[in-house]
Amino acid sequence: MFMKSMRSANGRNAVRCPLRLLSVVLAVLFAVAGCGGGHPHSGSRAVDPKAPPEAFPQDPTATIQGDWPSPGTGHDPADVVALGARLAYAYDQDDDTGITAFRLDNGDAAWHTTVPEGSSVAQAPRLTGNTVIGAFATTKNGSGTYADRHGISVAAMEADTGKTLWTREIATDSVSDNTAGTAVPHVVGADAQHVLVASYEQGFSETPPLSVLLDTRTGRVIWTDTDFKGVDLEESVAVGIRDDGDLAGKSTSDGRQQWSRDLRLGEIRTMDPGPGLTFADGTAAGGTLLIDAATGTTRLNSGDTSLLDCHYDGWNTTICAGADGSGNAVVWAVDVRTSHVLWRLPDPSANRVAPEITSAWHGVVYAQADQAMTLDTRTGKDLRTNTGPISPTMANDGYGLVYDDSDRTIDVYRAAGRSVSD
Description:
Elements: E1 62-65, E2 81-83, E3 87-92, E4 98-103, E5 109-114, E6 126-128, E7 131-140, E8 149-158, E9 164-171, E10 184-190, E11 194-200, E12 210-215, E13 221-225, E14 229-233, E15 237-241, E16 247-251, E17 257-261, E18 268-274, E19 277-282, E20 289-292, E21 298-301, E22 306-312, E23 317-323, E24 329-335, E25 341-345, E26 356-361, E27 364-368, E28 372-376, E29 382-384, E30 394-395, E31 399-404, E32 409-414
Antiparallel strand pairs: 1-32, 2-3, 3-4, 4-5, 6-7, 7-8, 8-9, 10-11, 11-12, 12-13, 14-15, 15-16, 16-17, 18-19, 19-20, 20-21, 22-23, 23-24, 24-25, 26-27, 27-28, 28-29, 30-31, 31-32
Domain Pyrrolo-quinoline quinone repeat: 93-260
Protein name: Pyrrolo-quinoline quinone repeat domain-containing protein
InterPro entries: PQQ_rpt_dom (IPR002372), Quinoprotein_ADH-like_sf (IPR011047), WD40/YVTN_repeat-like_dom_sf (IPR015943)
């Protein structure tokens, strides 16, 4: 089934890739809520009782600018930054390649940590607890008859200070006759226990993918797999695609394959829609699937509806947008614990249309209808129908972020009524 994409003023487009070389839409979708593993436990409402922002000012509070990788066609800040409460973390590709932390209140750099011999980077670093983790392609120049040596450097840094906690070097030359230098690694997901890193070339390639699972606390390599493109990390299972196109789950403890499925989806996209679930959609007949990451079973099949993108709210709901069989825009809200659909839009009986979804956070959906607005994640009811001039594509309890494609900057909006100390 050919994907019918929805565009929003601040939204993101789907990225489609060949069956053997998937594209992970990053973010994970959700750098704060991850779009790639490391989710807070669903239902954790008591962690921070502060209500999420529902209105933003006319002008940005700060602007963040850095030499980060391109965010892709969706121009989503989650593709380039991991969002903390007061800092945003991004790769820096200048002469001192590494990670930079930016202050949300003024856009200034709080710290920068260089990774020696680090070069190519992709997507965004990952934030888990008080640790920021990045993956870097490295090259050690050869001489004479000795060829260059390619590898991956995975580094963990203290989120507040940038202090390096550990660095792990992983050789990639043995993957395929020294051709792995063109592959770019990225952190698929990270949680308190594990970090999943994948490295592969974009497009068709004879070079196999490489996935590596590491211990978050020490950087110890738990397992590596050269026939596995990691796309999602959950507590007990890493999900990825085998060279034969099957979707598979590997144990995070010992790397043993827990399950494998031929989804028969043709060209396929995957993403992480929330804890415990993996999203899969393709060009063949059939709907979008939400798959139980631990068992490989289908938890939800959308039928003739193609869901384009899902935004996990950090609690227990993911908001998915797409198009029905007639090409009309739709929005579904799904409980990540039960996979039950809580509500759908449009609702002709109530004369309600489907808005364009830009993000979701802690019970609030940010969207665009005739203007920026918010909805309740659990009920779908309109909360505010005029939240200001912007609908953020990334949010936390105090700020909303929007990517400015013309300047390659990120505009930061402090929530209306919030002070820097909040």
